[in-house]
Amino acid sequence: MSLTPxxxxxxxxxxxxxxxxxxxxxxxxxxxxxxxLPPERGRDDDRFAKDWRDTALSSSATALREFVSSPDNExxxxxxxxxxxxxxxxxxxxxxxxxxxxxxxxERPGYLPTAENHSMMIETLSWNALKPADQEGSIEEQVxxxxxxxxFTVPNLVATFDALSAEGLLEVxxxxxxxxxxxxxxxxxRMAQSGRADAAIGEYxxxxxxxxxxxxxxxxxxxxxxACDQAVWFVFENITNDYVPxxxxxxxxxxxxxxxxxxxxxxxxxxxACQVNEQRHQRGELLDQYQRPExxxxxxxxxxxxxxxxxxxxxxxxxxxxxxxxxxGPGVLA
Length: 334
Prior knowledge:
Blueprint: H1 5-15, H2 61-69, H3 73-83, H4 86-107, H5 115-129, H6 139-149, H7 154-166, H8 182-193, H9 197-208, H10 216-219, H11 225-239, H12 247-257, H13 264-288, H14 301-306, H15 309-327
């Protein structure tokens, strides 16, 4: 009669009670029935599914359909790493890039999503982040590499967009304006300094409108007034040789314009008034620089009689200056 496992353990435990563990052990590998059995595990030890229906998505058909149609990135990434299938990893990377692109568009709603702008943004970002050999790939390959290396981020895209916009290198929506590039500004400056002020203003507007020809309807459109004012300001600063821009001067000229549409004649008139005001203010500062008489008692008649004619004249002029200072009101810029 064969012994049960429980009876076998009892016999082994009884016979082992008088055996010295430090003495030579018997090799029982050829007798598995005499070896101590490993602890039993229950069938519900979380290593295997308890039932063929026991899955994370079996409880809800809706959850299963959502996972099949749009699996989450973490699951896809885990599956890709466990199976080594590059398709799953590519799907995770593409989703990450799309999410970053959407967040960037929310940060910069003025970005025009065209193929030219997309290529310009990616090429600029690659030039700053990737090795020269990696910059030779297609735009899609560059986006994938930038995403894998952690350079395709919202802050990097925002910084790239701002830099390109400042240079006027990105396309803008029809009817909107953009900043002039360095070459365009230089061309307009040379036109203005050569005496072609009106042509320079037209060229500035044409570049600002991304090639759209300025017309009378456009000049009369309130939506384009700021662009027209900027063009006139730029030409004025380049044809007025004695004008050096400063925050105070710009504020004075803006007050002089009083909200009227800016023209070259209006800016030149405002600059003349600003110069007159600055000269008056400088004269006032010179008067303020005179030293005031020391706080002493006025000289007595005996002391005055003892003064020389030159000393009396100096005392008279000093008293007159002090009197003028006492009645002089504050200046315009005070």
